[in-house]
C-alpha cells in the first residue's frame, strides 16, 4: 500500500504559508487524486516521495532531467566548481567555455547569452527582436506556451491587455495563417515565434510541416524580422542542434532551457550576427544568472551530448515505450494514442472529452510505481533502460486493464472544472 501521511502533513502546513498551498506547473491540483506533491530523493530514472514511495519518472522534472537524475559526471563537475566559486561578483571561466561550446554546437548561432529560466530566454528574444529596428509586432501561435510572464502566461490573472497589445496570433503549422498575421503586422513586424512542434496541454501533439517552417523563414526574411525557435522544451531531445535543423530551417534566435545543466538552473538564448547589435541594446540581468556551478554542469552535459549516443538511446527507449503501450491498447480494445516525438510522448485516449479514462489510467499506473501525466507531454531520459520500460509496461498494462474493467463506473476527474477553466483561459 502506498503511504501518503507525510505528504498530507506537508500540504496542510504549506496551505498556511504558501498561497493556495502550491503554485505553478508543478502543483498537483490538476493531477489525479493521490499524486504526491513533495519528493525527498531522485536518482537516475527514479523519484522517491517524502513517504518513501518510489516511481519510474516520465516527467523528468518537467524536462530538465536529460541524462538521469544526479548523473555522476555532471555531479562531479558541480562539486569541482563548488569547491572554487559559484555566485560571486562576476562570472567565471565556465561562462566562456559554455558559450564557446554552444556556438560550436548550434549551427545558426554566433553568440550566446545565459539566464535561469525558459521564460527569461524567450523574453530576451522578444526584446531583441523589438530592439533591432524599433518595431513592435510579434507573431505567436495560438495556445503556444513560451513561459509564464505577462506577455505569454497561459493564465491571465494580473495581466493587462497592454501587456499583449502587439502580439498577433496565428494557427500553428498553417503557412497561410502565418502570412495573414504578417500582413496584419504590416511594416511593424519585429519577430515570429515558433515552437519545434505543437505541444499544447490536453491535446494531441503535432510535428511541424517543412512547408510551414520554410514559410516562417520566408515571411521573416520578407519583412526583415527575426525568426525565433523556442527550443526550451525540446532542445537536445530532437537533435544535437536546434530542433528546426531537422527541417532544414535556421532561425535567427533560439531559446534554450531545461536540459542544459541536467537539472542545474540555467537557460540560454542563442543568436546570429544579424541580432548581435540588438542583443547589446537590451538590459537583462539577474542576481544568479552568472553563477559558475550551473555553467560548469552545462559544459559537462554538452560534452556528454557530443561524445555519447544519448540521443539515439532516447529515441530507441521512447519508441519501445510507445510501441509497447499502443500494443497494450490494441490488445485490450482501448483507443489509446501517443503523439509527438517518441522522446517526448503525449498519451491520451480517443473519445475521452472529460479525460476521465486518461486520469484513471495515470492514477492506476502511479499506484503501481510509474509517474505519468494525463494532460502534459512526458519526457524520456538517457538513464532509462529496457528493463525500466518492461517494468513500466507491466504497470501500464495493469492500469489499462483497470480502466477496461471499470470503464462504466469511472467518474470525471475531481479537477474537471478547474481543468475546463484553464483550457478556456489558455
Automatic annotation (TrEMBL):
Q: Which residues form the signal peptide?
A: none
UniProt entry tagged with the keyword Hydrolase: no
A GO molecular function for this record?
pyridoxal phosphate binding
Q: Which SUPFAM superfamilies match?
A: PLP-dependent transferases (SSF53383)
**What PANTHER family does the database record attribute to this sequence?**
GLUTAMATE-1-SEMIALDEHYDE 2,1-AMINOMUTASE (PTHR43713), GLUTAMATE-1-SEMIALDEHYDE 2,1-AMINOMUTASE 1, CHLOROPLASTIC-RELATED (PTHR43713:SF3)
Belongs to which family? Belongs to the class-III pyridoxal-phosphate-dependent aminotransferase family.
Protein's recorded name: Glutamate-1-semialdehyde 2,1-aminomutase
